[in-house]
Amino acid sequence: MSNEYGSTPDFLRFLRKVLRLINQYLYVVMFVCIIYGLFEQPMPGLSLWGILLGCLILSYIFRDFSRRGVLLLVTHVALGVGCFFLIDNPFVRLLAFCVLVGFFIDGMMYIRSHYLIKRIFEAPWPCMIFGIIAIALGYHIGDVTLQRVGYIMPVLIIFMYLVSLYVDGLEEYLNGARRVSGAPMKMIISTNSLIVTGILTVFVVTILLGNALHLDRVLKDVLVSSLVIVRIIVAIIIFILKFVFSIMFGDNVSVAPPKMKLDEETGDNVLGSILDLIFVTAVIIITVLVVILFFRWLIRLLLSRQKRRDEVTEELAVARKVKVTKEKYTKSDKLKGSTPDMIARRMYKNRVLSYKKFFTPERNSTTDDIKNLIILRPMTNKKYFSKKTAKDEAEIDPENVAKLTEMYEEVRYGEKMPDDDFLRKMKKIKL
C-alpha cells in the first residue's frame, strides 16, 4: 500500500481495474448475444467467449504500457489478426473486430484520463434495458439461452455495481483517515465489509429464491388473471353509465353491452394465482428477514467491546484536594504532535491566545463564545481602551474570525485531515 497521503492503495487500484473489466465483459456478452438473436443465429459457444475475454485482458494490460494511441492501435490490430486465424466464421470475425474497436476506444479514453479510473462505472440502469431486449428477443425467436442471458447478466452487473460502491467508500475512507481515534481501523473496515456482505447476501438470496419458486411465472399468472377483474369493473362502469344516460335522455341512448365471454380456466385460477403469489412473497420475505437478523447479530458481535490493552484502566486511590479555582483555557493540555490536524489545532489556539490581554476563555467556552469574545471584547475592555496601540486600532474582521472558527471546527469536530493547502489558507487568515 502506498504511504503517500491521499493516494489510492495499490490493492484497491488493482481491484478497481478487475471490477471494471468484469463489468465490461458482462456487457460484451449481453451485446453479442443480442446481435446473434437479431440475426437468428444459435448462441455462440465457449470458444468465442474465451477469445473475447483474452482480448479484453490483453487490452487492459497493453493500455497501461501504451503512452501513445498509435502503440495501442497497433496492439489491437495484432489482436484482430489473431482473431482472424482463431475464428473461421466470417460473421463471427466481423463481430469480433467490432468488439475490438470498442476495446480500443475504451483504452484511448483511459489514456486520455491520465490512466485513472475516477469511477469504476456509472449506475447500471442501462443493463436493465438491454436485459429486457434480450428476454423479449429470446421469447420472439424461441431461444431459451438468450432469455437466460437477459435474466442473468443484469443481475450480475447490478451485483458488481454494489461491490464497486463499497470499494469507492473504502478508498475514500482510507484516503481521508490516516489517524483513527477509538476503534482500530481493522475493526471499522471489517464491520463495513460485513455490512456490505450482508446486503449482497440478501440480494443474492432474493434472486435465487425468486428463481427457484418461479416468482416471475406466478406474477405473470396474477397479471393475466387480473384481466378478468378489469373486465368485470369495466362492465359495471358501462352499466352505471347506461343507467344514468337512460334516466337523463330517455330510451334514445343505447350503449352496447360489453363482451363478457371469459375463459373458464382463467377465471377459475384467479384466487389460486393470488394465493400462490402471497405464498411465494411470504417465503422470500421471511427468508430475507432471517438473513438480515443473522448479519445483524454478527455485526453486534463484532462491535461488542473487547478487552484491549489500550482500554484497560486502573483505579488509583489518590487523595485529592478540592480547590475553588477556575481552570483556564491557557492551562489546558498541550497539543503535541506534528500531524496536520494537530498543526491546525495549535494554529487556532495560538490565534486565540494572542488576545489574552483582552480575555481568557473558560475551559467550557464554546467556539461561538470565543468567536464573540475575539470580535467584541477588544472594543469593550475599558482596562486597555486608553492604552490602545496602532495594532489595536485596526478593526477585527468578523468574516475572517468566522472563517478561522469554521476551519477549526471542521478539523476538531468534523474529523477532517487537513492538507498543505488547507493549512496554508488557515495561516493566511488575518484577524
Q: Indicate the proportion of strand residues.
A: under 5%
Global Rg? 35 Å
Could you tell me the mean pLDDT?
A: 75
- Find the structural class using helix and strand composition: mainly alpha
Largest sheet: none
> What order do the helices and strands follow?
HHHHHHHHHHHHHHH
Helix content: 55-70%
Report how far apart the termini are: 41 Å
The number of strands is 0
Identify the overall geometry: extended
Instruction: Count helical runs.
Output: 15
What ranges have pLDDT less than 50 throughout 5 or more consecutive residues? 1-6, 178-183, 306-319, 322-333
What does the model show?
There is one protein chain. This protein has 431 residues and is mainly α. 69% of the residues lie in helices and 0% in strands. It has 15 helices and no strands. It has helices spanning 10-38, 46-65, 69-86, 90-112, 125-141, 144-176, 185-212, 215-249, 264-268, 270-303, 340-353, 367-380, 390-393, 398-412, 420-428. The chain starts with 9 loop residues before the first helix and ends with a helix. Mean pLDDT is 75; it is low at 1-6, 178-183, 306-319 and 322-333.
Could you give a quick summary of the protein structure above?
This protein has 15 helices and no strands. By secondary structure, it is mainly α.
